[in-house]
Amino acid sequence: MSKKDNEVIKLHHKQIDLELYNKFQDANKKKTSINDFISEFIFQFLSKQTQKAYLQDLNNFFAFLAKGGVQVLTPSDIKGPHFQLYRDELIEKKYSSATINRKLVAVRSFMKWSLASKLIDHNPLDIIKLPKVRTESPTVAFTDKEVLEMIKTPDLKTKKSCSDKICMILLFSLGLRRSELVQIKLQDIQEDRNHFVLTIKGKGDKERILPLSNTLMKEIKDYIYRLKSFDIELKSDDFLLQSAKKGKNNKSMDGSTVYRIIEKYAKLCGINKKVSPHSCRATAISHLLDTQNTPIRDVAIFAGHSKITTTERYDKRRNNLDKSAAYQINYNDESA
Questions:
Q1: Mean pLDDT of 29-43
Q2: In this structure, is residue 287 part of a structural domain?
Q3: Which of 108, 11, 6 is nearest to 58 (CA)?
Q4: Quick one: 73 and 159 in the same domain?
Q5: What are the φ/ψ torsions at residue 22 (nearest 5 degrees)?
Q6: Are 111 and 183 within one domain?
Q7: Residue 158 is part of which domain span?
Q8: What is the model's pTM?
Q9: Strands 14-17 vs 195-201: parallel, antiparallel or unpaired
Q10: Alpha-carbon span 146 to 166, nearest angstrom
């Protein structure tokens, strides 16, 4: 067979890419499932959290197709109408536009990867529009009074209540993402130039250094001391948050546990609004912007935002007419 024949063959009067054809033949021989393609796709991401997020969103999409009797063995089995119906289903279930876009982007990224890997000859999802994402953050923040009430509520008589308290204190004090919080180990807290600092691994494994105030450091030390009364002595490679019923955690706290902690203490404090761990993050960022008047660039660094426009979503001062920049314009200022 000539070199040209190696590239393209004729099958049923149609031109077929031989490389792609052979991949499908090999896949059929191996009884490849869509899960094999998914595993290869998510392997390209370095962050375990990113891998987990993509896997969950893709599994949700394929579960939707399976519910409708659609069998997907390879990426070529995914059609435009599948994607469009999934989008409509998410809209009908009243997910936020940001959540819908995240779920859809995961599927679209998988198909882009499939195209680049020559598993498909075109991406049928490119022509389907995604919902517009709201520019404002819908996350409800806590008031200063609510923050103080929540962190004072745990009775500290059990290991879990001690862990719950330091969990909330870290969220409210450092504006951490849930995924960042649960990964903190004791060794991530170090002394640097007369400051205690916490090294955080954020999105995309980007590191940022957060100084710990004297008040926060005292809370952390008190927490570690209290754990000793429950026969838990933390070593450098131990996770800071200890939620296991007996002994030490051998893995990080589950993210859903953080949700339950925030919901539990909000309810105990009579806070009836819909809240989540992200509400704590929104509270910290909004507090710096609105109450402390911290420069927005400094807040963006603190929050681990790569774009200041993300931080601006939390800036309620933009709607404050009393502080509008319009009042600062004065062309008759003789001192100028």
A1: 80
A2: yes
A3: 108
A4: no
A5: -65, -35
A6: no
A7: 144-318
A8: 0.62
A9: unpaired
A10: 16
